[in-house]
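Record 1 of the preview.
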Amino acid sequence: MADAADAALPPPPAPTPAWRSTAAALVRSPRAMVAAAATVLIFPILAMLWLLLVSMGARRIARAAWGEGSAVVTAADGVSLAASAGLVVLGLASLAAAVCSICVAAWSKQADKAPALSDLTTPEDQPVLCVLMFGMFANLAFLLLTLVGLLLITFSHVKGSHAERSGYVIMDVAVFSLLVLNCFIVLPAMALFVWKRMYVIAWQLI
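->
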């Protein structure tokens, strides 16, 4: 009898895919839709920043190795121009999305459903935040080092003197270190943090 009763029961419904549930939630909430769109724009902005920094580093290396008019310098200039234009377009799109999000939030009845600011970070985010903090202080140190090199060049009274050459070396090392630091540490860590906390960031920063 028990076997017959079990056989008569319908099979359990298949679970709804996560992407379908997320899409349905976004469709039901205009504010969540606009906030998610604005947050997604962060990733191409980070990509354009990365391309800009890489092209600047490649240009400095190519200029030192092959001269100002080399093909590598020309290509790096083209990438820099394209990345800069992309940043302008993405910045305007992010601004428009942020304005739309603010307008939707002003008329939305879901304002009390936004996550609390204390939910922005969790203990598992601490390593990434430490890397970002290290990157901030390292950027400040390299900027100060660049300023030292610039001062040496400015106050060197003899063209081609030891102080002037030292200033150029210091500036080159500081600028190249800034590019490497941001390309391979700061920007990847920032992208990882945004990826892990994307939904909360959309609600709190927009």
